[in-house]
Amino acid sequence: MHLPHSTLKQEFVKKWIMGLQRCKFSNKKMSIFERKKAIKLSADTAMASARKGLTCWSRALISNPDRPVPTTTRRASSACKKIVKRSRRIRRTAKCGAARKGQITRSIAQCLVRKRTQILKSLIPGGEFMNEVCLIEETLDYITSLRVQVDVMRSLASASARASEPHN
Amino acid sequence: MESNAGTTETRSNVTVPDGGEVAAFESLQFTDEIHRLISAPGTDNASSFTALLELPATQVVELLHSPESVKLIVASAPNVEDFKGSFHFPSNTGLIQKDARFSVFSGEGNNKNEKSNSPEMTSKNSSANLEKAVKSEPAETVSSLPLVSDPTMENRNIKRKDREKKVKGSTKKSKTATNERLEDAEKLPYVHVRARRGQATDSHSLAERARREKINARMKLLQELVPGCNKISGTALVLDEIINHVQSLQRQVEFLSMRLATVNPRIDFNLDSLFTPESGSTMDGGNFPSLVTPLIWPDVQVNGYRKQFQHQWHFDTLKQPIWGREEVCNNYVTLENSLLSCDSSANSAATLHANQLKMEL
Description:
heterodimer, A: 168 residues, mainly alpha, 2 domains, 6 helices, 77% helix, B: 361 residues, MYOD Basic-Helix-Loop-Helix Domain, subunit B, 19 helices, elongated, disordered N terminus, IBH1-like (chain A), transcription regulation (chain A), IBH1_N (chain A), IBH1-like N-terminal domain-containing protein (chain A), transcription (chain A)
């Protein structure tokens, strides 16, 4: 079960190291932010190419690797609170039977879900163009790839930190 | 290991038609690869991403702009199974092909059908299970349906639905009904829909219901993947958790890349020095705690997810014998295990060490 996880990891590491090797020859002196950007860029591209074009997000990431850093998403909760307040007002004013109440709650739930799918679409690369089914599949894939990326980067960082210690 | 390399090789041959460089690439051993990469001088100075990906530009364009990609997806339908063993993840075209034959959902439906047809079910409990199986089976067949609007088929469906509605009452009859339905399923070449009792039967709502079932199935898989989602009920909250998880993973990547940039002045990380002391060396457990505890771990978010990663890493250690020759990954795994085992005390030491590093740089 976790064997494909390891093959994905190997793929990613191979491609990432290749990418970093290439970066080395382009520019000798880089500031720390440029280095960080280069590292992240090469890592993202390596991860996307490790999927070999099977998934939509990987293709979108390859074509547009510079993504803005995700900042805040608490807009959704505030919007949902407004929706809930509005629905409470409606419920108070209208004398409704059980069926209408069910309808109202259903519409509220739909609103919430819609807001969240919009946010998810903004998070996943290339997500704005997918329908819901594809979005969920892409999210699954994207999450596993991100985990692989984080694991590899973390182990590499710890390994290099460990290697640099004896030099002190 | 050999089989693993073999399968990856075949997979790569199927999916990437360009093949030449990539297939040869994957057939080599891992550490040898790394050493080769390190020692080889940079041949082309192009820092374009197409060069990065070892694909010619035309291939990349093809990959991005469709019909090739569809072929890739279809060709790699078995590949997708490896993605995570606990669920089956066929592509849409694969689903349609399967449906044309059997009208049963790929993995889980088969299991449930087998369960329902087992002759052991005699007691009341088993009959209740059978009812559930009967009810879930129609749900699954509905979910496997693409949009079909054939009037004759609909008539047949309606007849079957009527039969099904009559049958719902008694358990014995339902058992025979499942048998009949399965026989019908295998005889008929096209997919058929089963509506549950009291639900609309026109094609639009059926299609809508099929779509919703598909989405719900995928959401269940997502819930299993994201830690802490199993107990939450309700789509909006689950989506909230998923969004949080994705965001935290992205932020971790950002942070880790920053950390890698600070730790190493050279961008290729002095790979020689990293790998040569580690390859073939005996990693005794005594050295590890002392080396590992002063490591940086200032991001609080990361600690929260470490426990889940720990779970994954335990499985990886079990799989270690397969990686026999890949010593680098082996080292990563043992490193990670020691990292995760000597845990929470790193925080206070971590901030101190972070400051020290900054001063050194």
